[in-house]
């Protein structure tokens, strides 16, 4: 069933108003008609099955048929910090990791980042990334839209490490600890607190990987260096692989 996200203010009692691109999608693409049902979520605390009551060219008014439980979010809150890759690879990272279950994305610049960062153009790119996250969350029946933050410098990213319960630095030269080894004790501790949602940051490098200096700086800032197996993964694949490992270990995919 089709799903749309609205702001909390668009819910008014037992009715919801849908405007903008979503209203146009319902009217023009889905060819909506009175009585058609779909799911609406405010991305915070309310989700409902609704039915269309009124429509015009720019607005859809729907009535709440049934309140729904918001139960599709993972217990482990995983953020993907991705060094900006070339082309549209960041779009792929955001789309696929949203489908899998990431709660937020932090683009950043590292020493081997190839992309030329242009702050003047960043607003449009950030708006596109956020739109991709919204559409992927709707497609995957997420209860919330993952946040996509403004790109950070490497030093700014390091300063955020203390905001998370754990930080794993995905490093292709790591020969010791693998991500599964690091995840098991962390997840076991996290799941002992049933009402808490543990936070995990996965740090992924650009096409050329991280430098040894960056590896040392990440560990000094509190990150645990982990490998992702014996094979070298593309930068847009590494975050997905690490995310799947984390959610599997936390029981999202039968790991517990």
Automatic annotation (TrEMBL):
InterPro entries associated with the record: Alpha/beta_knot_MTases, PUA-like_sf, RsmE, RsmE_MTase_dom, RsmE_PUA-like, tRNA_m1G_MTases_N
Catalytic activity: uridine(1498) in 16S rRNA + S-adenosyl-L-methionine = N(3)-methyluridine(1498) in 16S rRNA + S-adenosyl-L-homocysteine + H(+)
Subcellular location: Cytoplasm
Similarity field: Belongs to the RNA methyltransferase RsmE family.
Role, per record: Specifically methylates the N3 position of the uracil ring of uridine 1498 (m3U1498) in 16S rRNA. Acts on the fully assembled 30S ribosomal subunit.
Alphabetical list of SUPFAM superfamilies matching this protein: alpha/beta knot (SSF75217), PUA domain-like (SSF88697)
GO biological process: rRNA base methylation
Top-level EC class: transferase
GO cellular component, one term: cytoplasm
Amino-acid biosynthesis among keywords: no
Keyword field: Cytoplasm, Methyltransferase, rRNA processing, S-adenosyl-L-methionine, Transferase
Source organism per UniProt: Paenibacillus ihbetae
Sequence ranges assigned to domain Ribosomal RNA small subunit methyltransferase E methyltransferase in this UniProt record: 73-243
Keyword Chaperone: no
Entry GO MF terms: rRNA (uridine-N3-)-methyltransferase activity
Residue ranges of every copy of the Ribosomal RNA small subunit methyltransferase E PUA-like domain listed in the record: 18-56
E.C. numbers: 2.1.1.193
Stated name of the protein: Ribosomal RNA small subunit methyltransferase E
Pfam families from the UniProt entry: Methyltrans_RNA (PF04452), PUA_4 (PF20260)
């Amino acid at each position: 069933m089709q799903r749309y996200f609205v702001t909390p203010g668009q819910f008014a009692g037992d009715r919801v108003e849908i405007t903008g691109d979503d209203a146009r999608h319902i009217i023009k693409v889905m060819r909506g008609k009175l009585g058609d049902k779909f799911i609406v979520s405010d991305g915070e605390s309310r989700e409902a099955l609704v039915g269309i009551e009124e429509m015009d060219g720019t607005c859809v008014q729907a009535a709440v048929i049934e309140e729904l439980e918001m139960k599709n979010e993972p217990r482990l809150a995983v953020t993907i910090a991705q060094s900006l890759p070339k082309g549209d690879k960041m779009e792929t990272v955001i789309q696929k990791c949203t489908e899998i279950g990431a709660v937020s994305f932090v683009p950043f610049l590292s020493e081997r980042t190839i992309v030329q960062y242009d702050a003047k153009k960043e607003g449009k790119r950030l708006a596109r990334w956020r739109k991709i996250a919204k559409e992927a969350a709707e497609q995957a029946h997420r209860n919330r839209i993952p946040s996509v933050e403004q790109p950070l410098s490497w030093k700014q990213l390091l300063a955020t490490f203390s905001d998370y319960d754990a930080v794993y630095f995905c490093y292709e030269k790591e020969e010791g600890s693998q991500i599964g080894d690091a995840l098991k004790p962390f997840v076991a501790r996290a799941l002992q607190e049933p009402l808490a949602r543990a936070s995990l940051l996965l740090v992924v490098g650009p096409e050329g990987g991280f430098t040894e200096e960056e590896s040392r700086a990440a560990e000094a800032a509190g990150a645990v260096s982990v490998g992702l197996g014996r094979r070298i993964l593309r930068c847009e694949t590494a975050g997905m692989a690490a995310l799947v490992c984390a959610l599997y270990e936390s029981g999202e995919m039968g790991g517990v």
